[in-house]
Design brief:
Layout: E1 2-9, H1 15-23, E2 28-32, H2 38-43, H3 45-63, H4 78-89, H5 92-100, E3 105-114, E4 119-124, E5 129-139, E6 143-145, H6 153-156, H7 161-164, E7 176-180, H8 184-195, E8 199-203, H9 215-227, E9 231-233, E10 236-244, E11 247-254, E12 260-265, E13 267-270, E14 274-276, E15 309-311, H10 322-337, E16 355-357, E17 362-367, H11 370-375, E18 380-386, H12 391-395, E19 407-413, E20 419-426, H13 429-432, H14 434-441, E21 443-446, H15 457-464, E22 468-471, H16 476-480, H17 490-494, H18 497-501
Parallel strand pairs: 1-2, 1-5, 2-3, 5-15, 7-8, 7-13, 8-9
Antiparallel strand pairs: 3-4, 4-5, 6-14, 10-11, 11-12, 16-17, 17-20, 18-19, 19-20, 21-22
Helix pairs in contact: 1-10, 3-4, 3-8
The protein binds flavin-adenine dinucleotide and nicotinamide-adenine-dinucleotide (NAD).
Flavin-adenine dinucleotide binds next to β2, α2, α3, β3 and α10.
Amino acid sequence: MNHYDVIVIGTGAANIITDAAQRQGLRIAVVERDRFGGTCLNRGCIPTKIMVTAANVVREMEEARRIGVYADNVRMDWDVITRRLWHKINENSAIKDYYAAFPNVDVYEGTASFTGKKSLHIAMNDGTAQDISGDKIFIGVGARTNIPDLPGLEETGYLTSETLFGSKYPKRPYDSLLIIGGGPIGCEFAHVFNAAGTKVTIVQRNVRLLPKEDEDISAFILKQLTNHGISVRLNQTTLSASVKDGKKCLTVQDKATGETTELYADEILVAPGIRPMTDLLHLEHTDVRTDDRGFIMTNEFLETSAEGIWAIGDVNGQAPFRHKANHEAEILSHNLFSDVPPEQWRWVHYDIVPAVTFTYPEAAHVGLSEASARKKGYDVEIAVNHYSASAKGYAMGLEPGDDDDGFVKLVIDKKTKYILGAHIIGHEASILIQPFVNQLTCGFHTIAPIHEDIASPTAQMLRALPLTRNLAPNPVYTLSETMTPHPALSEVTMWTRYYYEKK
Ligand SMILES: Cc1cc2nc3c(=O)[nH]c(=O)nc-3n(C[C@H](O)[C@H](O)[C@H](O)COP(=O)(O)OP(=O)(O)OC[C@H]3O[C@@H](n4cnc5c(N)ncnc54)[C@H](O)[C@@H]3O)c2cc1C
Ligand SMILES: NC(=O)c1ccc[n+]([C@@H]2O[C@H](COP(=O)([O-])OP(=O)(O)OC[C@H]3O[C@@H](n4cnc5c(N)ncnc54)[C@H](O)[C@@H]3O)[C@@H](O)[C@H]2O)c1
């Protein structure tokens, strides 16, 4: 059995940990069962945003007539989008080659599962098997679509984000598409296919689209998607799927009226949320604890309940975004692989994770919604500013009262005047949210334990201090510790710090 200093399972955000351990000359095993680079590169953020960016331009060109610019025959060239998208996805093999070239890194292409507290069996993709063990093990195995238990779905056939960017990639846009789920995945694909000319219907179980957003943002996006011709059915129960007259059919029931309807389309895309990839890991052989949905429980230092095992990214069930996963991996790299004393350790706090849904227009937020702030007992004040109130907004053709006149909404604690949450819907909301993320990240922070009972002796010592960190606005390291939503154009400014850090 090969023994390693470090084992990293998964090659999404966990690559940041591999890089840090590699720079220290440690002996590392990297295990990956699928395409290298994880969800973001292969079937998530990157290919969807290549599509979304093209879809945005379609909408912008259509709207440009209100400022005196006319473009005829605006259309998406699916072949160009397809070529650009797969060009990017295919970079995954370069990631594998990159790691394989290091003498201190062994790359295993296969599925890892625990056989003991620190040992793993790898069912290699070529049919062979390997057994390895390690001192430090990092789990970054991500998540996948949580397929609903819907009668007839398997027989009818369906798409997920995984198969759409895999064996079922469409050679041309569908004529019609039913989307199960009105979260970020459902809404972003609805925007893309709608702009590509597909007749799109979203079937959403919740009474709102994007229910993790502030209610005002959900209402705005509903109006926008509807204005663009997307049919949205809220508050629905999906009863069954079938094939009728050559079309795929979804039978749904309105939860309020009880009315049952049959919806037809060429294809069904399933986007009802995600489940962790922990089922393949056989964590029962370890002391790693999971919650009732199978997500690995981690503390503010990304420690699991098992000694020497950490977990980052989607698999820990906290804010499933790539920038959050990167942030966690950077914290571990700093704490464990940069020779700093524990008193200089960083920790994660999830209350300042920005989120952007790349619909048209974009929806972005950081911090608490109005409803969640009130629920937490804050006496809140609200400040709202519309795009049309700014000179640039007018220049863009936005007038007060326009359906698409986006806005910024601040949720403020009446007592302290602190910003509890910032919410933006409108053009480039992904960039406009950044100042609020920076502002909330700056300042003096005191460690806030997550899962109090998960604590290595070092974590216990740091909690007892208690550990503090002052992020003054001027030093470049404050930028390094501030998240930026991925993939927003604000990365161009925020990631300048990498050139300072020479990474
Ligand atoms: C359609 C879609 C669009 C998205 N858009 C955005 C966006 O715009 N912005 C954003 O921030 N987030 C977005 N996300 C979410 C984002 O992709 C994830 O939060 C992020 O990629 C998670 O990274 P990770 O490192 O935790 O896991 P992953 O990137 O999923 O990496 C895990 C890796 O582990 C491998 N693996 C799993 N189990 C094993 C095993 N047992 N053995 C070996 N290898 C294993 C997997 O094959 C995978 O490569 C999107 C997701 C989807 C599905
Ligand atoms: N721009 C981004 O950052 C981005 C984009 C896409 C995905 N993601 C991440 O990926 C994760 C998965 O996205 P998602 O949209 O699948 O998840 P989600 O859990 O956010 O949304 C799924 C939606 O589907 C609905 N739903 C669930 N079961 C249903 C059913 N049977 N019928 C009808 N509706 C049903 C739920 O009410 C929910 O609103 C998200 O948590 C998100 O963080 C991020």
